[in-house]
Amino acid sequence: MSTNQEYDDIRFAVIGGTGLYKLDSLKHLASLDLDTPYGKPSGPVQIFETESGNKIAFLARHGETHSLLPSEVPFRANIAALKHLGVMAILAFSSVGSLQEHIAPGDFVIPDQIIDRTKGIRKDTFFGQGCVGHSSFGEPFHAGLSELLLSCSDALESSNLTSGGTLIAMEGPAFSSRAESRLYQSWGGSVINMTSVPEAKLAREAEIAYQMVCMATDYDSWRINEEPVSTATVMLQLSKNGLNAARLLKAVLPKVELKLYNSDTNPTDFTKTGSILQNSIFMPKDLISPEQLHNLKFMFPNEF
Predict the structure, then answer these.
(1) Catalytically active residues, by annotation
(2) Transmembrane stretches, by residue range (predicted)?
């Protein structure tokens, strides 16, 4: 469906992961049931109004009732729907396992790198099928969003906020074996999850500034003298992490709004995003297949 014009310029979105399913502190305006060329998103896109009167979007990655496995999440539809609404920047929250002693359960990490260990099961690009494109992914996360988050570290209660680190993206749904966990630790991995890829890559292709906030629930499986991670372990930590996620978001949101909604500034000066034709597509526009032109126009109506 086409969106109501009232909700066509939503510049900022939050993607909630395990433990963060809604934004209780903001005024709820609408629930948008969107269709995209890539199918339906994980659920309705929720529109909220901030205290400053700006509109932002929220999407529960695993669905509103946590009904989707990581490999089942419709990542392309999620990112396409947010881009269609005008989203320029995303903060994505995710529960993770810690691969390092100094990152304790309950701590938050703002990673700056990714190692992709998914298995090709997930549809992970908007390109192909008559459209050749390659996006730069050397710096997977957005430095500006990272800096804003780090400036709000005092918002967390009884938890530390770690700057930088490598996020291992695994397929799941099983947790790591001890050997796998220790291997990832030896690579210098900081934390591990099942949803950062392809979400971060698709956001880059869609020219959306993207930063993941990692919320540690456990020590994965590398501690030899402890039981390996289990669902029960994770569930015990989720409630605390969800409360801290809400605190962090409340603190950082006004700073994000100044960057994206201030009429005196150009938001692209902050996001550093631009034209998909200039930054990623490796072929003349008039040679792109009709199907892909249709798909890309859904996200980039001014370019196609």
Answers:
(1) 218, 220
(2) none
